[in-house]
């Protein structure tokens, strides 16, 4: 049985994907800690730092897709005090195509509520099997 | 002037790249918290979880490059209590080619020493200008 704390983080994590699917900037922004020490790294992008840059990134994305749906596997959740990490495998189907990505989410608990402080999402390269000796995409240049 | 705490995290971060450049598994492993709650996400790979998977990943990489050198820009360091986050832009030149990557590093302080607990590194797509409206590589399928 899952411990109660983990379930609360999972719900915060789920809320992120719901806001993404709704393409709702206000709903998305409400899930993040409201300050300038948040960071969001979209796949391939430079890090967006602080409330304004993070929000503008979501606006840019939400304005350019007409639909987006996620299938998400939460691979791991760790909680230490008021900090939590979730690692997710994401499959995105959108009006712009499909992608499989790996995401690191960091949350902090404020007044009993888990807020996002960091997201790092990046493409999973399906031909990069970590068990294979030749799985070294990192050393073969940026795609 | 940089506060002393930040400098200690920077040194731990530097030590990571030195161990990587030396391709020394033991030196690398000594920089990580020695337990099964560590995660390392190499560019394009599935997350490697726990001490054994993380070490095996480094062995696979170090066995397949004959030289590797980093130019690293530390973009951000945040410390909250015994937790620290560093975000780095990495340029890698190796016997297998060149790549520019963005990394999230998470550290925990144990007995006064900052140990890695999480690394997520992924390719920076140079044509993905986050200021551009059409910078949506995440929605255009995995490279």
Task: Report on the architecture of this protein.
The structure is a homodimer of 143-residue chains. The first copy, chain A, is an alpha+beta fold. The first copy, chain A, has helices at residues 4-22, 25-29, 50-64; strands at residues 39-41, 48-49, 68-80, 83-94, 97-110, 113-123. Chain A has a 6-stranded mixed β-sheet with strand order 2-1-6-5-4-3. In chain A, β4 (83-94) and β5 (97-110) form a beta hairpin. The longest helix of chain A has 19 residues, at 4-22. At the A-B interface, β2, α3, β3, β4 and β5 of A face β2, α3, β3, β4 and β5 of B.
Give a summary of the structure in a few sentences.
The structure is a homodimer of 143-residue chains. Chain A is α+β, with helices and mostly antiparallel strands. Helix content of chain A is 27%, strand content 38%.
Number of strands of chain A: 6
N/C terminus separation of chain A: 41 Å
Report low-confidence residues of chain A grouped into runs of 5 or more. Answer: 132-143
Alpha-beta classification of chain A? alpha+beta
In order across it, which strands form the biggest sheet of chain A?
2-1-6-5-4-3
Largest sheet of chain A: 6 strands, mixed
Approximately what portion of the residues of chain A adopt beta-strand conformation?
35-45%
Q: What is the average of the pLDDT values of chain A? A: 89
Output the helix-strand order of chain A: HHEEHEEEE
Shape, per Cα inertia axes of chain A: globular
Total helices of chain A: the number is 3
**Largest interface: which pair?**
A-B, 61 and 61 residues
Helix content of chain A: 25-40%
């Amino acid at each position: 049985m899952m411990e109660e704390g983990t379930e609360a983080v999972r719900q915060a994590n789920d809320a992120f994907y719901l806001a993404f699917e709704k393409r709702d900037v206000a709903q998305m922004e409400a899930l993040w800690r409201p300050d300038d020490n948040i960071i969001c790294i979209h796949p391939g992008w430079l890090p967006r730092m602080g409330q304004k840059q993070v929000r503008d990134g979501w606006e840019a994305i939400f304005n350019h897709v007409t639909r987006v749906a996620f299938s998400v596997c939460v691979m791991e959740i760790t909680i230490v005090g008021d900090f939590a990490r979730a690692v997710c495998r994401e499959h995105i189907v959108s009006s712009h195509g499909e992608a499989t990505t790996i995401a690191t989410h960091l949350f902090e608990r404020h007044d009993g509520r888990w807020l996002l402080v960091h997201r790092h999402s990046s493409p999973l390269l399906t031909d990069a099997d970590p068990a294979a000796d030749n799985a070294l995409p990192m050393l073969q240049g940026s795609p």
